[in-house]
Amino acid sequence: MKPLTPSAALSEVVGAKPLPRTEVTKKVWEYIKKHNLQNAENKRNIDADDKLKVVFGGKKQVSMFEMTKLISGHLK
């Protein structure tokens, strides 16, 4: 897969160097698990901290499916 450059907001989570889309998703999940951001009641939802809230367009919580779409908007 072609490496894509993350936006400034997304680079706070995954780093600034260009990565394939699959690696970006993997690093976001690592961040979510490290900071315990997966909703305890519904594991399909992600509770955003301050860094992810910027990536998620200001939303406090998104589903894992919506998360993929929102991340795509931060890749060039």
From TrEMBL:
Name of the protein: DM2 domain-containing protein
PROSITE patterns per the UniProt record, alphabetical: SWIB_MDM2 (PS51925)
Listed CDD domains: SWIB-MDM2_like
Pfam families (alphabetical): SWIB
Domain DM2: start-end pairs: 1-76
Transmembrane regions listed in the UniProt entry: none
Species lineage: Bacteria, Pseudomonadati, Pseudomonadota, Betaproteobacteria, Burkholderiales
Source organism per UniProt: Herbaspirillum hiltneri N3
Superkingdom of origin: Bacteria
Gene3D superfamilies assigned: SWIB/MDM2 domain
